[in-house]
Amino acid sequence: MRVLAPVVVGGVLAATAAVSATASITIGYDASSPVLKVDAKGNAEVDWTEHGARKTMLVPSTGRYLPNGHISDRDVSKPASGVTLPYLRVLRRTPDGRLWALQSWPVQPNGPVELRLSRWKGEPTAVRATVDGGRLTGTATFQGHGVFGFSPTTAGTPIRLYAWVDCWRCEGASGWHRLIGVRLTEPDGTFSLFLKPAWQSSRYRVTVPGPNRGTLYAPDAAVVVTA
User: Fold this and answer.
1) What is the pLDDT of residue 23?
2) Can you give the residue ranges of every domain in the chain?
3) Are 219 and 185 within 8 A, CB to CB?
4) pTM flag (> 0.85)
């Protein structure tokens, strides 16, 4: 997992900063044909194609993930449904009731599309947002608790949590355009962003990487709001 130093201005992350705003687990980049397997011990294997090469990653039940690793026992996971997640590529369920997901989206401003793994029980991460006048406000939660502060990597490195804000066809873009990352610092998960005149748009999208809490890697959440 790549971690680069962010550039912070006035409590928000500048859109030009190259930073891995990671929670959950980033597995690979610009991935196609992803496959997810989980054994009875909770070890997960992700296989995908990246720039024409087939790759694999082993994510053990605890500890750091291992490039080129494989599960040693059979896959006990089954395809799952009934859960709505943004950017979803694969969703599976294991006999212990846990859900496992692969999502893909460009986390870093102007960066590659990241393939990200999550595993959790219960309700997924949720983000709500509204636009009132020139301000966008919202709340990010996971299972009744605010998403804020830091989230550790599997190596234990704390990474700051952000709400990433995109606008639709603003600043000359033809589609979604990354504006900025807003630090999630409030314990209740609330956040607020003043929308500069150049950022005026008909729609905004807010994406929040799910936090890592112990052995739970919460899925990423997103919402689109109309101005």
Assistant:
1) 62
2) 8-226
3) no
4) yes
